[in-house]
Amino acid sequence: MTLSDPDHELVTEHLGREPTQAEAALFENLWSEHCAYRSSRPLLGAFESDGENVIVPPGDDAGVVAIPSSGDEDTYIAMGIESHNHPSYVDPFDGAATGVGGIVRDILSMGAYPIALTDSLYFGDFEKEYPRYLFEGVVEGISHYGNSIGVPTVAGSVAFHDGYEGNPLVNVACVGLTDGDRLVTAEAQEPGNKLVLVGRETGRDGMGGASFASEDLAEDAETEDRPAVQVGDPYSEKLLIECNEQLIDEDLIESARDLGAAGLGGASSELVAKGGLGGEIELDRVHQREPGMNGTEILLSESQERMVYEVEPGNVDRVAEIAERYDLRASVIGETTDDGIYHCTFEGETVVEADAEFLGEGAPMHDLDHAEPDRPERDLPEFDLEAAFETVVGSPNTASKRWVYRQYDHEVQVRTATPPGDDAAVLAIREAETGLAISAGADPNWTSAAPYEGARAVGLENATNLAAKGATPLAAVDCLNGGNPEKPDVYGGFKAIVDGLADVCSTLSTPVVGGNVSLYNDSVEGPIPPTPTLTMVGTKDGYDAPPMALSGEGTLLLVGGTDDGPALGGSELLARSGGSDRFPELPGNAAELIETIAAVADFESTLATHDVSHGGLAVSLAEMLTDDAGADVTVESSLAPFDEQPGRVVVETTDPDAVREAFDGVAPVEKLGAATADGTLSIEAGDASLTVDASEVAELRAVIEDEL
């Protein structure tokens, strides 16, 4: 990828001369889709990002939100999300690992300590060897990096869909903890302050990573694009985490930026531009691990585990002392200036001299054509209840993900009160006497069938996950993934998921405080489905939450949703069996519904809760089943167990009247039957019925673990 002719002409006109090699490469990366959001920024204004708890809105390395609590009101969380899709195709281990490292450093740059990770992963058909190879490598990379740095991976999702055959998605989010005194931003503060690079030495790995992420994957990407993939070292990252913590504790940092896309050039130019300042950079001063690097390589290398700090001159020596204590290098590479010019020298010669704001904000936005997505008609296959149950419950998409999350250390830092495998993780934020619930994911079946409605469903489903554990939404970050936006049908689907996700988050009064856009996820296999990954957090009093597993002692109710009849559009059943249908109707009072679900989850009479989503009621009941507790359930038709309408929760309760009273005027409450003490699931569905025991269900749900 090179600077396009129109961009080259614009840059030349602005500079009044031909750009140098370093300038051309820097503009190419900073004006890429990955950095400048040239195709997506015109759409992103649909998101609401303000609110009474929002401290730092989108535009920084991460968003920051205050935790409402009865304790310390000055407790903040920082949230960020990023994609490492193309790198994870070329090198699944390093691509995924460095995705974790990068998002953790985004949290560090806000003065926050990372306390949790989520991973949302999307691959091709699980039955094919190559997607399984990518899946195994990505999970290994995430577990290696996250476990090594001591940050628990507590939530996420995994989906398999043939639309990801040539382009997997790896979306990773991080949550960190800070407060008003420790908060730092990526906005340079004063001219004359020093710019200090702290971390590992700079090498030639990750060259042109931003531009690489902004083009379709070619057939030879695994070999040709390997130099664009960074190589991480989690042990250096752990040292950087602790070093950053001490620098913040001693109030030595004025502003900070993680070195991610476009390397030092991206981080330092954006830092000074956001403060309305300029920067003077001496590239020779950058500590390097490879001999003979030229100025362009030093400027654009995306070598990992590096941060750039703005430091007052009198504090530079102390910063260097602390970095040395943690076996990290620290180099004074330049200083902030008041002229607004980003100026870099190498071996005494100027290699970059451009307006800092023009570098970061000068890329013209794209005005692209879009085609409205088609709406599917009803065309249902014939199926019987027992075969459909086995197909859906035994699908890799709805099967147990234990093989994944057992590789992650989710207990490190001793905050995880509800671990992975439930609707949402719950962390103990003892500083605020508050439970923080976290949910993450998307469903490509939904957004393939109906991009707008499917994206709304993704938002509602994540909120329902939180509510099922007694929490109400606080904030969210999103990763919006799409194919080549120059194709009108692809851009139409992408626009629809943006509008749908923005709409539901607004309805839920949940500000979207940060995010990432990843386009050009296209390959010789075709474009990916439009995929709006969401990581949402919510809060509750205390850290206890009702379990997902049945107790065997209560009445089973299905709460939430609408009275609209079953619809299988976007369902796992149709994905596995063929056919099409309209997408399920979503409730119009989503905010009131979520608040009511959260309140009922915390009733003393509530014994178990579990949301109904991927795979429908059949999968929800199968997941609640244990060797000692089962369910005897009746539903209206053989379609009902497989309808994936979000905003519904199965509640096991000893006081069904209290639940009905809570939902009066809010949403339907349907009696499903009773929990039993025999470890057997019995379903009567119209004229059909089935009975399975816990061991049979466990065998169906073990497909991933059995295959791998």
What does this structure look like?
- This is Phosphoribosylformylglycinamidine synthase subunit PurL.
- GO terms for molecular function: ATP binding; magnesium ion binding; phosphoribosylformylglycinamidine synthase activity.
- It is found in: Cytoplasm.
- Its EC number is 6.3.5.3.
- By secondary structure, this protein is an alpha+beta fold.
- It has a domain of 162 residues: PurM-like C-terminal domain (Phosphoribosyl-aminoimidazole Synthetase, Chain A, domain 2).
- 33% of the residues lie in helices and 26% in strands.
- The chain is globular.
The top level CATH class name of the domain at 546-707: Alpha Beta
Rg to the nearest angstrom?
A: 25 Å
Question: Would you report the number of β strands?
Answer: 28
CATH-defined fold name of the domain at 546-707: Phosphoribosyl-aminoimidazole Synthetase, Chain A, domain 2
Identify the CATH architecture of the domain at 546-707: Alpha-Beta Complex
How far the N terminus sits from the C terminus, by CA atoms, comes to 37 Å
Cα shape: globular
Largest beta-sheet characterization = 7 strands, mixed
Class derived from helix and strand content: alpha+beta
Strand content: 25-35%
| Fraction of residues in helix | 25-40%
Mean pLDDT: 94
Low-confidence stretches: none
CATH superfamily of the domain at 546-707: PurM-like C-terminal domain
- Order of strands, widest sheet: 8-10-7-11-9-12-13
Output the number of helix runs.
25
